[in-house]
């Protein structure tokens, strides 16, 4: 496996160089002024980048960190093109489906994706990780170990989410059931955020996962650079408290608690990005009138000590109208630009659009629309990248391998069946890889390579 990865890095370097030279020769711009000076310099930089990545094979990965409003690895920019596949742990728990985990990482790696977001929870359900508070199924934990070790083989980092707001895979509802079984007499699932016993259940889970020693790699999770970040919760909402105070207090406690155990990894909340009571002037940007009443507050929540970057989701087909509409793409652009602006002006941190997609079940859906949606997200990220802004990357929902159609929620993308979508994803990965390898945090866009990079990043037929 190590031989395969090392060969892949040399190949990537060569592909980046060939892609760059093809782009420059086919564009309408006059590139003669670059050929002698900058093209050679960039080619050397790409090859040097490949060699540096090879060196990393012999050493432990560096942790992803933040510097101002950007992600960095070893003081180089780390802009993200990634994906979601939430069920990896459950599939890894069964020998008959474990190979699908490897397939997902292999396919994602083939189009240059570098980050995957997945669940590090399954509470009280079928193939539960946590069968009851602080009681774990070791076989399922070993399955999560496999996911982490397999991701490392394909040089894909993981955002691991620690609990669900929704009932799928247990979520806060399961914690309430456990509380009631212990005699608490709780009447709302939102007691998850406020009741001290349920908070203690969650914190015990956090402590167990972060201190887990991987049975495949012998590396403790909190020491493993394969893990990009911890996510406190998938899409937290506290509908019973529209002021947002209850959720805010929970975020404060849990972000601090995660950092008290693990100071090395990044932490994010898992929010959808809705504007709340602290910024009523931003309500008009929300996708609907209900969004500011669900107990979340994008700017206020992300100002909590211990939160390292912002998360935003994008689902116009469920937030605005189920039918595909012409208004959806402009909404996506304005939604993203508003959150990038907020991350720069008020938060001073990167923002990742950690879920986005469109359901094939939506009336009016076609593959061309999905491609346009993905292109809209990617180009908005690039517009921020060009300026050294807070738009740090995106994670499409969701990537599936062949033969898993029965798990499709309508959003699944199977690369082998979607050549146009695969090309768009690969192009974005190439552009971001070039930027990550050719610039440094000191260089940014003021370096001598700026003109060539602008040509590469914005040439549609790269």
From TrEMBL:
Compartment(s): Secreted
Record keywords: Glycosidase, Hydrolase, Secreted, Signal
Signal peptide range in chain numbering: 1-28
Listed EC numbers: 3.2.1.78
Name used for this protein in its record: mannan endo-1,4-beta-mannosidase
GO biological process, one term: polysaccharide catabolic process
A molecular function (GO) term: mannan endo-1,4-beta-mannosidase activity
Reactions accelerated catalytically: Random hydrolysis of (1->4)-beta-D-mannosidic linkages in mannans, galactomannans and glucomannans
Glycoside hydrolase family domain segment(s): 62-397
Gene3D superfamilies reported in the protein's UniProt record: Glycosidases (3.20.20.80)
First-tier enzyme category under EC: hydrolase
Protein family according to the UniProt entry: Belongs to the glycosyl hydrolase 5 (cellulase A) family.
Major subcellular site: secreted
GO cellular component, one term: extracellular region
């Amino acid at each position: 496996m190590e031989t395969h990865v090392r060969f892949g890095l040399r190949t990537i370097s060569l592909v980046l160089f060939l892609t760059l030279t093809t782009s420059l020769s086919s564009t309408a711009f006059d590139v003669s002024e670059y050929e002698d000076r900058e093209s050679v310099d960039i080619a050397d930089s790409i090859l040097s980048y490949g060699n540096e990545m090879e060196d990393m094979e012999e050493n432990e990965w560096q942790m992803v960190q933040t510097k101002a409003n950007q992600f960095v690895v070893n003081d180089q920019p780390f802009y993200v093109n990634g994906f979601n596949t939430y069920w990896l742990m459950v599939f890894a728990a069964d020998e008959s489906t474990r190979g699908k985990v490897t397939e997902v990482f292999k396919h994602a790696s083939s189009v240059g994706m570098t980050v995957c977001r997945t669940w590090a929870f399954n509470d009280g359900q079928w193939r539960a990780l946590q069968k009851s508070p602080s009681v774990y199924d070791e076989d399922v934990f070993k399955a999560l170990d496999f996911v982490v070790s397999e991701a490392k083989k394909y040089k894909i980092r993981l955002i691991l989410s620690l609990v669900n707001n929704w009932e799928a895979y247990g979520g806060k509802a399961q914690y309430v059931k456990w509380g009631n079984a212990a005699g608490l007499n709780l009447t709302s699932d939102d007691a998850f955020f406020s009741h001290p016993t349920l908070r203690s259940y969650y914190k015990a889970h956090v402590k167990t996962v972060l201190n887990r020693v991987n049975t495949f790699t012998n590396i403790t999770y909190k020491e493993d650079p394969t893990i990009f970040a911890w996510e406190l919760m998938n899409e937290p909402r506290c509908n019973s408290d529209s002021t947002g105070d209850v959720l805010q207090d929970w975020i404060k406690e849990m972000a601090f608690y995660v950092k008290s155990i693990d100071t090395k990894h990044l932490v994010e909340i898992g929010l959808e990005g809705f504007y709340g009571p602290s910024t009523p002037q931003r309500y008009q940007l929300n996708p609907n009138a209900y969004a500011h009443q669900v107990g979340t507050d994008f700017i206020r929540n992300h100002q909590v000590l211990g939160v390292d970057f912002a998360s935003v989701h994008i689902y116009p087909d469920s937030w605005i109208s189920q039918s595909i509409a012409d208004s959806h793409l402009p909404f996506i652009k304005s939604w993203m630009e508003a959150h990038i602006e907020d991350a720069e002006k008020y938060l001073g941190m990167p923002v990742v659009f950690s879920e986005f997609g469109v359901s094939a079940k939506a009336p009016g859906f076609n593959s061309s629309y999905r491609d346009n949606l993905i292109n809209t997200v990617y180009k908005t990220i690039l517009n921020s990248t060009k300026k050294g802004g807070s738009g740090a990357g995106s994670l499409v929902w969701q990537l599936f391998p062949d033969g898993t159609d029965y798990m499709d929620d309508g959003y699944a993308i199977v690369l082998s069946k979607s050549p146009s979508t695969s090309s768009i994803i690969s192009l974005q990965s190439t552009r971001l890889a070039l930027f990550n390898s050719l610039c440094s945090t000191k260089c940014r866009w003021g370096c001598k390579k700026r003109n060539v990079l602008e040509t590469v990043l914005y040439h549609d037929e790269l």
